[in-house]
Amino acid sequence: KAGVTQTPRYLIKTRGQQVTLSCSPISGHRSVSWYQQTPGQGLQFLFEYFSETQRNKGNFPGRFSGRQFSNSRSEMNVSTLELGDSALYLCASSESRVMTRQETQYFGPGTRLLVL
Amino acid sequence: AQKVTQAQTEISVVEKEDVTLDCVYETRDTTYYLFWYKQPPSGELVFLIRRNSFDEQNEISGRYSWNFQKSTSSFNFTITASQVVDSAVYFCALSSYVAGGFKTIFGAGTRLFVKA
Hints:
- The structure holds 2 protein chains of 2 kinds.
- Chain A is mainly β.
- Chain A is built from no helices and 11 strands.
- In chain A, strand 4 and strand 5 (about 40-50) form a beta hairpin.
- Chain A is globular, with a radius of gyration of 14 Å.
- Chain A starts with a strand and ends with a strand.
- The mean pLDDT of chain A is about 90.
- By secondary structure, chain B is mostly beta strands.
- In chain B, the strands form 3 sheets. In chain B, strands 2, 5, 6, 10, 11 and 12 form a 6-stranded mixed β-sheet that branches.
- In chain B, a hairpin with a 2-residue loop joins strand 10 and strand 11 (about 100-105).
- The mean pLDDT of chain B is about 90.
- The chains are: A mainly beta, B mainly beta.
- The interface between A and B is medium-sized, with 29 and 27 residues.
């Protein structure tokens, strides 16, 4: 099976712009989570989607939004970019709603966003 | 509130030494899941192990072993006979279902340097 894929891998934007990042989960995985990783704050949970519904959300401003499509692919959007949004954005997918002994989040390679 | 503490920011060892990475967690949930991930310089988080809160069995996988102790809320990770390829940042993570959704919080990470 192919792993989690994220596009684009690298992105440079300027303050005030908006950006959309894409994540394709492992085939058969229905849950997609997004994380932001920065040197200062570490890995922080953004949100989780399951069957096109946001099930959980971290403590981020409304400028950060996401969605999930019927094929489980997910996008996250950041509007009105700020310098502090520069980070590695990681997407993770897992198989199902119910945590079983076999369920685990598998991560993509991430999108490195630089805001100038 | 949930919390994961990795007190060791950086560890440096010489190849073939054994090294233990510490992880202490806090949660009020009775059912939760603990993970270790490895992040090499490429940035992708690589899954190493998952442990359920109701399963305190320790585990060994090759040179890797994990010691889960609920009594001390710890989930430590030991690498035996370390190798240069083990150099990476290692994250401990805690997951649970919160308000119907799945949420994961990560520790700050421990950067491991293995010198030849």
